[in-house]
Amino acid sequence: MNETRDVETGLPPEVDADLEAAQPQPGPRRMVLNMGPQHPSTHGVLRLVIELDGETVVRCIPEIGYLHTGIEKEFEVKTYQQAVTLTDRVDYLAPMSNNFGYALAVEKLLELEIPPKAQWMRVMLVELTRLNSHLVWLGTHALDIGAMSVFLYCFREREEILKLFEMFSGQRMMTSYIRIGGLALEPPRGWQQRVKKVIDAFPSRIDEYENLLTNNPIWIGRTRGVGHITLEDMLDLGITGPMLRAAGLKIDARKDAPYSSYEKFDFEVPTRTENDVFARYQIRIEEMRQSTKIVRQAMDGMPEGPWKAADQHVVLPDREKMKTQMEALIYHFKIVTEGFRVPAGEVYQVIESPRGELGYYVVSDGTGIPYRVHMRTPSFGNLQATSKLVEGTLIADVIASIGSMDFVLGDTDR
Amino acid sequence: MEAFDSDAVLGGAIFRGELTLEIAPAKIASVCGFLKYDQQYVRISSVTAVDWYPRQPRFELVYHLHSIERKERLRLKCKLPADAPPIESVTGVWRGANWYEREVFDLFGIEFTGHPDLRRIMMPDDWTGHPLRKDYPVTGPRV
């Protein structure tokens, strides 16, 4: 904790004035604890102002905005295709999911048909992203609670997945690989073997994490029965994703409103009913197994054909054609310099990101630059419930509870 | 919807398979209450705004609702002129609208009545201006 101060001796000066005014008159045992914004267990720059009575949390006020980068404003000066690079930087642990949501939204406006190979490829990459994101979550969450070794195991596998991303896109994290109209580049030769190698080993790796945690008495003691919040509260406060599934609600955008051929894949949506930190852990572990299954299906059933749409107004021509055909060169020049025009209108595209409901609301005024892009990010919705989740619990459980929400501050503050 | 209050709905459109209803700003909270309790729209996905400067009415408030039971999504819109009186908050219907309305207040300068904690959320408290307004420059000094 970077600063604690007794209320009797005065509040920390950085507590906002109106926040201070809202404080109830403290008794002799009350103290205000300022956790963050640089506290390691807050995974970024979340600040929690916690009022304690002994060890019990009486009030908790989350403060965000320390990582606000104005990405939604930045969309005002980028063409549609350029803006793909901004979406990576929103949720930097699941860059492809964000590329994907944005691309789907713009494609819906364009009414663009995406060839099956690109759709399958996208599903495969997004599920690899889910594995990547869940691995970081598991590693850091376990680290917070004190299981240090899990972190090393998780990052070993994450490295393998990042290497796959590098092979596909040339980048480990900010991939921008899923573009409007398909993919950024042709999938490299021999990708099947590389992906197969990672995916074949993966189920046994998940068993390893489970060996370390699932029956570990300390882990169970720290997580079981901790972080309970009723389903009604969760829906009311805007929580989505694995937390809802850990409370028994079978909700998943991949099943409820399938996009990009998800209806053709065979997978389960795991649910639990315990609704605590341990159940959320089990849900994410099971989701990793399901994602492995989807990646394998996508890999085995990968259709033949083009990896980008045929619309020459939107998709850049092949390099070869661009250098030999005048028409292709003109299209190339127009798309690169001006971008493509998108019909006026608005869409809201929802996908299931590793953290929950990721929605892209794109408004077009008919020009080559998006008029307004709003990102409904899962972390923002989930973090709202922090107060409800931790009030009345012990200070030590705060770490476990907020860890189980799996938020990314880049995703929250945008 | 018509049966509930025929004055509240000013128009509607289906674009790319998505239903949008335009709601009279004065009725937004009662319409949302009806949708939540009688039409199973138990979740609010987001509240945001679009600035159509210099066109009038300047702002469009956009609400995305989600019905888990019906597996449907609905978009509500309120058109607000720049000098419109503050609109009623929907935090009384869904507590989850809290941060979204704070964000709209912070970045667009639209005020809500009946909001429990209407402070800036992204920008520092002493910031002047509302960054997502179209007359706010993307780069360079603020004018």
3D structure, described in words:
With about 425 residues, chain A is α+β, with helices and mostly antiparallel strands. Chain A has 2 domains: about 100 residues, Enolase-like, domain 1 (2-Layer Sandwich), CATH 3.30.390; about 280 residues, Cytochrome-c3 Hydrogenase, chain B (Orthogonal Bundle). Chain A contains 18 helices and 9 strands. Chain A is globular. Chain B is of the alpha/beta class and about 140 residues long. Chain B contains 2 helices and 7 strands, in the order ββαββββαβ. In chain B, strand 4 and strand 5 form a beta hairpin. Chain B is globular and about 50 Å long.
**String of helices and strands of chain B:** EEHEEEEHE
> Total domains of chain A, how many?
2
Return the string of H and E elements of chain A: EHEEEHHHHHEEHHHHHHHHEEEHHHH
Summarize the largest interface: chains and residue counts.
A-B, 41 and 36 residues
Oligomeric state of this protein? heterodimer
3D shape of chain A = globular
What percent of residues of chain B adopt helix (DSSP H or I)? Answer: 10-25%
Q: Helix- and strand-based class of chain A?
A: alpha+beta
Mean pLDDT of chain A, to the nearest integer, reads 86
Instruction: Provide the spatial order of strands within the biggest beta sheet of chain B.
Output: 1-2-5-4-3
CATH superfamily heading of the domain at 9-94 in chain B: NADH:ubiquinone oxidoreductase Nqo5 subunit
- What is the straight-line distance between the termini of chain B? 45 Å
